[in-house]
């Protein structure tokens, strides 16, 4: 397996982002700010020769990927791999509902009434478990279900035989997915996980076989 750099980009701003609603597997279109931001992200990455590219199959991520591709001539020779493995966490009953109110319902019974409180006292996996517990249908993904899905996506990347030492690879995904990756693959306390990655932001990971290490967050 190769040693390479994985660039993780959060999709551009959507209307649900503006309205402070959980999107999960739901979708809302990119705002004009989101479109412009994705173009700017593409320009920041335009001189990087990517060997492979991956993307969530949700519309907001695919649109962001397309706008990034338009700014980078090296993408002419590759086709992005689009997969549901890279989707955002599924929020079940809470899809499309107010983010702050949802995390209050999930965390308050445990003495953590905000998302930041949950992260301060626990971690991202606990946040997922709390949400599934609070979901009256129990359809939201808990940590085990979430990582079973996402790990299949990570395996797609790390086992790609075309990726060689020193290559660069792009992944366009989602806010809580990036937070989850940073939570799992960084040193505790290295990054402030109470700060969500900005739309269009770039996070970088060093990949060595199946060993992943976060090197930059939310740039």
UniProtKB/TrEMBL annotation:
CDD domains (UniProt xref): HP_PGM_like
Domain of life (superkingdom)? Bacteria
Q: Which UniProt keywords apply?
A: Hydrolase
Keyword hit for Transport: no
Q: PANTHER family of this UniProt entry?
A: FRUCTOSE-2,6-BISPHOSPHATASE TIGAR
| This protein's name | Phosphoglycerate mutase family protein
